Amino acid sequence: MIVVVGLSHRSAPVEIRERLAVAPTELAQRVAELKQRTRASELVLLGTCNRVEVIAAPQPGGRDTPGALGGRVIDELEATAPNVRSHLYMHDERAGLEHLFRVASSLDSLVVGEPQILGQLKDAFTCARASGAVGPSLNRAFEHAFRVAKRVRSETSLGAGQVSIPTVAVDLAREIFSELRGHKVVLVGTGEMATLVATLLGKAGAHVVVVGRTLDRAREVAQKLGAEPRSWDDFPTLLVEADIVVSSTSAPGYVVTLDQFAQTRKQRHGRNLLLVDLAVPRDIDPRIADLHGVFLYNVDNLAQVADAAVSDRRREADKAIAIVGEETDGFLRRLHAERITPTLVTLREHFRSALAAELERSLRGHRTPLDDKQKESLHKALATAVEKILHAPTERLRAWAKDDNFGDWHTDLLLAAVEELFDLRESQSQEPVSHESSHP
Amino acid sequence: MGAILWTSFLLSGGSYLTACILFFTLARQRRATRLGPKWPARLLGLGAALQLVYLVLFSVVDRRCPVYSLHTALGIVSLVGVVTYVVLSRGRRLEALGGFVAASAAIFMVTAISLAGRPPEPNDRWLMAIHITSNLLGGGVLLIAGCAAAFYLWNEYRLRHRRVLGQGTRLPPLESLDGVVHRLLWIGVPLLTIGMLTGRLALRRLDVVTVGDKTRAALSTASWLLLLVVLALRQFARWRGRRPALVTLVGAVGIFTIIALYVGRALLGGAL
Questions:
Q1: Domain end point (choices A141, A161, A181)
Q2: Is this prediction's pTM over 0.80?
């Protein structure tokens, strides 16, 4: 079972979220650190501009519980960014799985139905797997989450209309500038979403200029976008000429400061300027928004705007929520059913070995020894008898484990009763059965 | 003749009202639909043509120059506003402004019904004809400029407070509104300047100058000065954005107040 600990746009504003933000280049290192410090068996770290979430799993069959692991993750996040505890949420067991499926299906996104989150989740999973932080529990949960997301996409129109943060940013630019042809867009940084915004603005006819800390990096991005590369030294001049500035760097502080902007104000003659800050931590000093002719939108602001534009999707969200609930139940049923497998295997082995031992003993005392063919047919007859005797109890146990009316505790009780009645605990400890490879 | 007169009047008012409804419906739609801005604009144009027919016929029946009657003068102001909008709105996503212009034109027409009396013609007919015509044309254009400036301030407020996209009426883009205000100032301010100069001359020639005349003259001078300054700053200091919009709006409100004073005086039987 898994636990999800984190904060998102629902629980924390961007000022808080940016304190836990992880740069993509540091993600693998941070996963390794968190895994070690929280003693998690498996761990995936999802860091987007709207959420930072740790999805972890304890050792299967161990004494550690998802709840206890979640508590350690909370302590670790609090140590990283003091006073974030009140903004953190924790979902374990069923709620954890359901949350993961909701996130993958974009039901928990700022813009419900936006497609980026699935890619971001896949990237986080791939990164953790490459770091060796993913085991069977998370592997199974994530693979299923991706399937749920696909089902939601295909069975609902949650993603219809192509409303996302980048499209909202472009629509917003049109609210100010009407025609984007001939307007200058300055792209600062190379974040995925910002690049997407710049691409859309470029397609609408705007002249895109890419500014990077190094000219080489700016050239690389500019080539992809068909834009003009400029060095960081040109930025003050570009700030005077720009109509739209899209920023998404991984810088820890403000890239565009109030002082820097104030110097260019006079030369702008009150021309309108749209500033789109897609970075977390933020790149643009929020005090700039108080100046005349400046329209500053950060990720939260864009999402609010987008949310209002996709009210139709809320109806579809109900359908998607039903699918997520159904899939969570299905996943848990399969998990429960698999939990009884080791006990059933041991039970069969117990019966087979007891009967085989009894057969061997009776044959040893036989006056005319049996040949191999006769022995084999006797063993086969015994195996068939075991199958027939255990068929009904096996099917019943499986049915109970899959039954929604019975909880985990009921399955545990049944397994404990079977193990106690047939004295299987000793057998299990002597012959451990692999969870993955065992088949009754 | 009377039947044609009233038919054109009613059809014109009906066209304005229908255009107004269509414009606002269009402005409230978030996505592109089959109802494009062409149809409401065409209806507005049709309304203007019918209103022109009405004004010409009314003047023929009344046997006087349309500028000497407040009834037809008010009609000219609304007609100028509508024509200005139709010409300038092409390809500019100004649907919400169109709705406001259509509604204003309809209101002006209805108000004008109660002003169909025959006031005495002025002594200095040519001077007054130039004065009133330039003021009517300039006033009509500058009222639209004031509307565009008000829409600019409204949309700017919404954008600054992030109340856009999918929330209420879709307002015209800021840059379009700013461009419209600039062009209209260029058309309206010279016309108003002619009106100002001829007005000064006419005022000097009057035997008796009432308090009402002085008030209107002071208000029109102040409005004209504001609009002249804003035009000059926009042209020479490249002044853009909220402040010029605000000053334009104040100037347009001044002009509207003068028209309202004339209408009020006529309605109250010359008491003002």
A1: A161
A2: no
Residues 272-291 of A with CB under 8 A from B: 272, 289
Tokens of A86: 């009140």
- In 10 A of CB A217, how many CB atoms? 15
Instruction: Point out which residues pair with A256 in neighbouring strands.
Output: A284
Q: Which of A44, A49, A55, A133 is catalytic?
A: A49
- Mark which of A134, A161, A188 sits at the end of a domain: A161
Q: Which residues pair with A296 in a beta bridge?
A: A275
Tell me, yes or no, whether A122 and A20 share the same domain.
yes
Q: Which helix (H) or strand (E) holds A246?
A: strand A244-247
In a domain, A373, yes or no: yes
A157 plus A178 within the same structural domain: no
Q: Which of A415-429, B24-38, B180-194, B238-252 has the least mean pLDDT?
A: B24-38
Report the DSSP pairing between strands A42-47 and A51-57. antiparallel
CATH number of B1-121: 1.20.120
Known catalytic membership, residue A49? yes
B3 CB-contact burial (10 Å; exposed 0-12 / middle 13-18 / buried 19+): exposed
At B52, list the tokens.
């022109």
Rounded distance, CA B219 to CA B81, Å? 21
Of B162, B175, B240, the CB nearest to A270: B240
Tens digit of each residue's pLDDT (9 = 90 or more) over A117-129: 898 999 999 999 9
- Which member of B165, B166, B175 has the closest CB to residue A177? B175
pLDDT tens-place string over residues A280-310: 888 899 999 888 889 999 888 887 777 666 6
pLDDT digits (tens, 9 = 90+) for B4-50: 888 888 999 999 999 999 888 887 765 555 566 778 888 999 999 99
**Which sequence spans correspond to the domains of chain B?**
1-121, 123-272
| Cα–Cα nearest to A346, from A286, A404, A293, A419 | A419
| Tokens read off for B149 | 């400036």
Contact B256, B147 (CB under 8 A): no
Could you give the C-alpha distances from A236 to A177, A231, B186, in angstroms and in order? 22, 11, 34
pLDDT digits (tens, 9 = 90+) for A35-50: 999 999 999 999 888 8
